[in-house]
Amino acid sequence: LNNYVGFDSITSQINRKLVRRGFQFNVMVVGPSGSGKSTLVNTLFSAHLMNSKGRVDIQTPYRQTTEINVTSHVVQENRVQLQLNLIDTPGYGDQINNDKCWEPIIKYIRDQHSSYLRRELNSHREKRLQDTRVHCCLFFIRPTGHSLRPIDIAVLKRLTEIVNVVPVIAKSDSLTLEERAAFKQQIREEITKHDINLYPYDSDDIDDEELNLNAAVRNLIPFAVVGSEKEIVVDGKHIRGRQNRWGIVNVDDENHCEFIYLRNFLMRTHLQDLIETTSVYHYERFRSKQLSTLKE
Ligand code: GDP
Ligand code: MG
Q: How many whole angstroms separate alpha carbon 144 and alpha carbon 190?
């Protein structure tokens, strides 16, 4: 007797549907001005951004972001379409009075949750909800070798309560490999000490493979990265990199920095999980709080 009815094909059914529909992926960058946020985003997605916008203006000198700025790009790989929204935030903690400087950032994230909720409650009007919820927040740490500032801790605390936060050490080409390892270790200890709940989370329903993957990510965090929008020529080859006092840093070389690890994490191994965790964990928490206050 063959009891096979074929519902195991649901995984490919779901995949096909998702692929046809396309994904929305919303990445936010947070950190002090001049910490390399815009440069890193352009480095991460440069090839694709060039396709969708025609070109990336690599000539623009140092530009400061004064308000929250969202740019939207449709990128495609094979038959998979990704709508990528990049959310650039103003540097926090740059003012003399930094009291509540994180509020516009927190408000932006909350506003996306509440507008999603509003649309969800009216969902009979819309076939498919536009998803502007922030799926990943890259938190930029300057390569100082010093402790995180109290303001960094304060911002991290608040962010991690509402969004998937992934810390990166920006401009890590200014650190030697030894300094980098020590700094990473120190940041990890501070994060533990201050009880900051970073992505990824080990929920109860995850299997061994996912547990291992999460452990591997935690070993890499914070990713020590280098960004560059310029190509340089080394031995006749064009590479994306930077020339500094000690020589040339190749952004795409994992012996030089962890840029490739970050990109693989974001785009290859955890893209779907970042989206799903936002929905089932962060958004769900927001939603149940909102709905319970409505009932009162
Ligand atoms: P943002 O204000 O955080 O968006 O910072 P930007 O991306 O505009 O970068 C500020 C300055 O730092 C620019 O002059 C960049 O060329 C430089 N920069 C960006 N990334 C790196 C990096 O990885 N290493 C070094 N050495 N400089 C960088
Ligand atoms: Mg910027």
A: 14
Mutate to test the pocket of ligand 1, among 33, 39, 68 (most ligand atoms within 8 A of CB): 39
Residue pair 36/171 in contact by the 8 Å Cβ criterion: yes
Q: How far is the CA of 118 from the centre of ligand 1 (A)?
A: 38
Which of 18-27, 41-50, 174-183, 186-195 shows the lowest mean pLDDT across its residues? 41-50
- Tell the residue number behind the tokens 């050490």, with chain if given: 169
Rounded to whole angstroms, how far apart are CA atoms 114 and 96? 32
Residue linked to tokens 């650190």: 175
Ligand nearest to C-alpha 68? 2
The atom of ligand 1 lying closest to the CA of 41 is 7
DSSP conformation class of 38: H
- The per-residue pLDDT for range 66-121, each reduced to its tens digit, is 588 888 888 877 777 788 899 998 887 776 677 778 889 999 999 999 999 998 88
DSSP state of 270: S
Is 258 buried (19+), middle (13-18) or exposed (0-12) by CB count in 10 A?
Answer: buried
Q: DSSP character for 231?
A: E
Name the E strands within the chain: 23-30, 69-77, 80-88, 136-141, 165-169, 223-224, 231-234, 237-244, 247-250
Calpha distance 256→247 (Å, rounded)? 11
Digit-coded pLDDT (tens) for 234-245: 888 888 899 887
CA distance 71 to 209: 35
Whose alpha carbon is nearest atom 20 of ligand 1?
A: 36
Closest Cα to residue 28, out of 272, 266, 287, 277? Answer: 266
CA distance 84 to 23: 8
Q: How many CA atoms lie within 13 A of 266 on its CB side?
A: 25
Rounded to two decimals, the ipTM of the complex is: 0.99
Q: Tokens standing for 142?
A: 């300057």
